[in-house]
Amino acid sequence: MIMRDEQNLSLIKQDREIERHKQVEKFKRKQAEIKKEHNKIDAETTKTISELNEKKIAEVNSIQAQADLEAETIRAQTREKTALIIAEGEANVEKLKAETSAFVQKQKAIIQKNVSTLKAEALEYEGRIEQDVGRMLSYKRDHEAKMRELASLYTMAQNKDISLFSNQNDPVLTQVAALRLTGMPQL
Q1: Model-wide pTM > 0.70
Q2: Helices then strands (H, E): number in the chain?
Q3: How far is CA 92 from CA 12, 58, 174, in A?
Q4: Start-to-end CA span in the chain (Å)
Q5: What count of other Cβ atoms lies within 10 Å of the Cβ of residue 175?
Q6: Nearest Cα to 122, choosing from 37, 39, 34, 36?
Q7: Which residues of 29-41 are buried (b: 16+ CB within 10 A; e: fewer)?
Q8: Percent of the chain scored above 70 by pLDDT?
């Protein structure tokens, strides 16, 4: 019966160890997914910023070229008309800068929210794993206490100078007698 209990305990330990490894692997996969998603978002943000800067530069160059073309083709227009076109171009540039800045800030906020959510999930998984490990250690301590109790009974059973008297229903006396007859089980 003790061997069966030890085998059952060994199987439980193996199952717990396998489960713990599964949880750890799941956590690592989730963490890798989070990192991958974070890197993807960073890359997309960098790409978007670069595209917006290129678009801004292209639009500024287009406006400037348009202003220069109009200045060349219509020399008769006054400086006031030329200044007005340049002012419109600069206003568009400032508008694009403001829109770009707002977009970048919005994307950063979205990324930060996603990162925070994923970090919270990672902490939750870590907490679950720590709970499982605590439970497993409790089982181990219980098993070790039972093994110490059995060793004490075995030591008493080996001492020929001890005489125990009791009724037949006493489990300690029964265990000592059984250990005297069978010998100490393997711990």
Answers
A1: no
A2: 3, 0
A3: 70, 12, 96
A4: 13
A5: 16
A6: 34
A7: eebeebeeeeeeb
A8: 81
